[in-house]
């Protein structure tokens, strides 16, 4: 099941998050290899991304998002996705 | 080059757009086959979609969007995407 | 899986929707009996409701919502819900 | 009488609220056992919840909410609920 | 129990609501005499009012509001009120 | 002359305002006794109130509001009120 | 007493308001001559104005605004003004 | 003097504006040749543009904008521009 | 040339700006005497003002605003004004 | 390919960014000389600018923006631009 997720990151001025950023990247790569984090794009001009997650349940998605190393500094918007009637793959 | 596009469709009450909807679907399938309209998801609960387009220029994207049969009834938001540093494919 | 849904209904002035309203009620009762539409509350002062749906997938939810008789006159906001760590039932 | 409540929690960076969080959970469980806090769901991707309270008066609700341990860090939106004409239980 | 209510009225151009306006006034006077509609003020420069209602339950308030003759043309915002700790009458 | 005032109080984390809160209450009681602060209600779930002031001029209202002890921590919205044509007292 | 007023005019497409516009202008000139409508500026690029009215009471202002010929097509925002401590005239 | 202008065009459904669109284009070309309308870009995905005008006074700009053939169907936002300290031409 | 300016001042808690406030007042008086800052009104209930400036160019206005002593703590909105067709002085 | 960019700069109170500002200016001049940063205007009354960039790809634009010395203190909005049908240069 697919979910569209927008993440806007805002780090308080002066806070060193180097370790967290590295941990975030490692976790993101891990989830992409697992086929859970299926799309991850940078929004031009912002410390933000659009992502798509493929998970079995809402709870699974919340567990993933809320344990991301940068979660405390993120504003997250989750939008559930359904199959579009004009989706080529769905014809 | 990837662009994230949100389309919200609002048809004026009483207007018959059956033909336009069919033409929209045909055009969407055509663009997906051409590898231009690379993702198309329905936003649950809305006559809206999140899409991703792969185009060479801004002009090409505008020509595509502004000639969609349902374009006159769409509110469209375009966000340019860049490669995310944690994108598995970009490692 | 639970989804929180807000529905705001706006009927164009002068349009007779008596039949649709009756069909909407019948459908709502049917979905409640089926255990899908698990909560349905009226927002005081508005032609709106807060609801909770229990469905297996996003697609199922979209099919339900988009085929509601009053769907063309609804603004719908869907929020996926997860288990709260302080939920008594989850202890 | 039912009230729909949305709580968005924002803890200032660096502030240790471990005790408050524990106290919040204990209080939430207590209120759920008392049948006052009748629904409590986590909003996926956010330190937020949708809740439903069953109280006798507005004052009772405000006393409950304003004495929650995490209240100083909460943005709260309260919406009074009425019986929906299509509520199965109300037929 | 007190509820603060804001009503913004918007009549579609060309629609004659003379009768409804008269019926609205009669109903408002009736509810004020009954001690239910306890405050009713005109917002300067707008076809809007701030009101305060004294009712026993949410359902009672919704029944009153949703049966107002001008209800179909109103945007209504309801805010439950509690006793303020500095309210002179509450000392 | 009546003015509707909404006050939202936000105290910076860690700042001790006990004295100010006490002074605010004393001032509020004083103004109520003087018939200036004619209504004061707590908005359920928020450190906010709806109030109504009866003053002779805009300047008088601004002097009162801007000298409230908690003024530096308040977001204030002032709406001038006029007599409503359906106000019972105005018939 | 001074009030800042913003008026945004929106005429429904196809409606002939020539007479109303003429009546509006006559009324505006009349009120300016009476020293009530003390400032009237066009907002560049919009069918809108910023104005300042000098009236004795809120009711007087509402009567003036609500009887303007174009009132039914106006969105109006009223902001009460007080003397600014740095106002040269107030030194 | 430079002004940044955003124009969003919304044509009521079913209204034929072919002549107006042609007149708008002719006028735009005329103003560009006159060095007044100095930049005109299409916002991708919208019937909107960002423009920059070079005019002597606010009044001149309002006269130009408010006499554009499509003006009745435009939402316009005007932002005055000043020389940026890092503008190469201003060094 | 007239510009409408709204200034909202927000001083970070605990910061002593007494000198700046005095300097701001002196500068405001100076500009008023010079006929540049032609109107300055306090918005009731807020540390904000509506002002009107009479300047020759946008650059002049920006230089004035951006060198105000309290500028670093101000949110400023500038709206260019044109002569209103119903302005008595313009007849 | 042209992109419209709005940058709003907000420096935390008390933070000395003199070096960054100088570095930002140097970088801006460099990019203007390179024909990449093609327009740069100050928004009157704000620490903000409207700019237009001419780049080959989204990634190039993001690299430029995200490495600007003041980037950590900027809110940036990017809007892709297309050729306007009434653009004189495009006739």
From TrEMBL, chains A, B, C, D, E, F, G, H, I, J:
<dbReference type="Pfam" id="PF02426">
    <property type="entry name" value="MIase"/>
</dbReference>
<keyword id="KW-0413">Isomerase</keyword>
<dbReference type="InterPro" id="IPR003464">
    <property type="entry name" value="Muconolactone_d_Isoase"/>
</dbReference>
<dbReference type="InterPro" id="IPR026029">
    <property type="entry name" value="MLI_dom"/>
</dbReference>
<comment type="similarity">
    <text>Belongs to the muconolactone Delta-isomerase family.</text>
</comment>
<keyword id="KW-0058">Aromatic hydrocarbons catabolism</keyword>
<comment type="pathway">
    <text>Aromatic compound metabolism; beta-ketoadipate pathway; 5-oxo-4,5-dihydro-2-furylacetate from catechol: step 3/3.</text>
</comment>
<comment type="subunit">
    <text>Homodecamer.</text>
</comment>
<dbReference type="InterPro" id="IPR011008">
    <property type="entry name" value="Dimeric_a/b-barrel"/>
</dbReference>
<feature type="domain" description="Muconolactone isomerase">
    <location>
        <begin position="1"/>
        <end position="87"/>
    </location>
</feature>
<protein>
    <recommendedName>
        <fullName>Muconolactone Delta-isomerase</fullName>
        <ecNumber>5.3.3.4</ecNumber>
    </recommendedName>
</protein>
